[in-house]
Amino acid sequence: MPEVHKNLGITDEVFDNACQIFTNSVKKMKPKLKVMREFVKRIGGIRNEICFPPVDDSMPPPTLEESATGSNALFV
């Protein structure tokens, strides 16, 4: 997973926003508490495989809106 995300410049802020969206979506399915805890644990555990600060300072990191529209896909 790091190879796919390394050059996207995904920051902790973008990752946190995406996690919140995923968490809200899962909550709508009304999972059991045990399932929800496991989901949060697993998604939080991949932060180091997803978040890489931008290498090129002239290129700002993608916003969540850009990621959602496909301009800079968060997850492939």
3D structure, described in words:
The chain is mostly helical and 76 residues long. Helix 2 runs antiparallel to helix 3. It is built from five helices and no strands.
Sheet/helix structural class:
mainly alpha
Terminal-residue CA separation:
9 Å
Count of helix runs: 5
Helix percentage range: 55-70%
Report the order of strands and helices.
HHHHH
Any low-confidence stretches, pLDDT <50, length ≥5?
69-76
Strand content: under 5%
Quick summary of this structure?
By secondary structure, this protein is an all-alpha fold. The chain contains five helices and no strands.
Topology:
Layout: H1 2-5, H2 12-28, H3 33-44, H4 47-50, H5 64-69
Helix pairs in contact: 2-3
Features:
76 residues; mainly alpha; 5 helices; 57% helix; 0% strand; elongated
